[in-house]
Amino acid sequence: MVSGTILAGVAIIPAQAAALADAFVSGQMEKDRRGAAKKKKKRRLRQKCSKCGEGPHRNDAIYCWSCGELLD
Ligand SMILES: [Zn+2]
């Protein structure tokens, strides 16, 4: 009787854990997709330096590689 309960627990808990992990992963992927779309819009503005006009810069650049000016 006790071993039956233990066996049921062992069988059910991993199934629940897998469902939980699955829900977490798909939720995370949804977040990543939205984040990537957001970043893409911002990145277009970072191509040319407003101070010295140097460009193009790396898409993830924050500062100008030529004069060090903060890119908008
Ligand atoms: Zn510059």
Could you give a quick summary of the protein structure above?
This protein has one helix and no strands.
Helix content: 55-70%
- State the separation between the terminal residues, measured CA to CA: 69 Å
Bound molecules: zinc ion
Structural class: mainly alpha
The rough form would be described as: rod-shaped
Q: Helix segment count?
A: 1
Strand content: under 5%
Q: Would you count the extended β strands for me?
A: 0
N-to-C order of helices and strands: H
Question: How many domains, in number, for the residues?
Answer: 2
Uncertain runs with pLDDT below 50, 5 residues or more?
none
Which features would summarize this protein structure in a list?
72 residues; mainly alpha; 2 domains; 1 helix; binds zinc ion
Give a description of the structure.
With 72 residues, the chain is mostly helical. The protein has two domains: 1-41; 43-72, no CATH class. 58% of the residues lie in helices and 0% in strands. It contains one helix and no strands. It has one helix at residues 2-43. It is rod-shaped and about 80 Å long. The protein binds zinc ion (ZN). The site of zinc ion (ZN) has 8 residues, from loops.
